[in-house]
Amino acid sequence: VAGILASDFGILQVSKEAIVKKSVKKSDVYVPVLNPVKDNRDKKQLPPETELLIKLHAADFKERAILHDAMGNLGNKNTAAIVSKRKQLSDKIHDLSYRIDTLFTAKEEFYRTGKIYTAAELFPEKSASKPEEKELSDNEDALKKMKKNFQSANTKDQNLLDYQQEKKGTKPAPMPKGPKRTKIELRIDQRKIDIEAIDFKLLEIASQNK
After folding, report:
1. What is the pTM of this model?
2. CA within 20 to 30 Å of 55's CA: 5, 37, 100, 155, which one?
């Protein structure tokens, strides 16, 4: 009858667990036994190479967050010192982003296929004779041309991501996630950083010519 509670009849409400403990013996309960499923995500099955990749991924992720905070603390001023420091931080963040994405991809590949990558394979040592980073030109026309070239290259790369071809297609055909897509995305991000540096340089030149 609607509106009548069990407690009105003096019925004691007890949990299902209590009923089971008092009225059912453990031996009487049927518990289906499932075949164990192998899972590469089980830490006990992780090879030391993959464990190292996971640790490196976590450390790089943490370091990148610290660098992001440091760049945010620089503020919005565009003095020569701040622009230089911002560029240094941006370059480090870019390098870490590449490492993080590469480590993540390698880790997921192990979980999917069992393939084991080593840190040495993913990040071979760079040549000690790495050329020094070139300073931006003081020529305004050269800077504008460089900026235009970067923008054009980014347009082509973005089309590769969206249509898997350098020219814009009629229908979207997004490039699937993976090392190739990550590499192109990072390339676009680096050019954006370079374009920003050119803009700051142009502002600096304009202020000097006043």
Report:
1. 0.44
2. 37
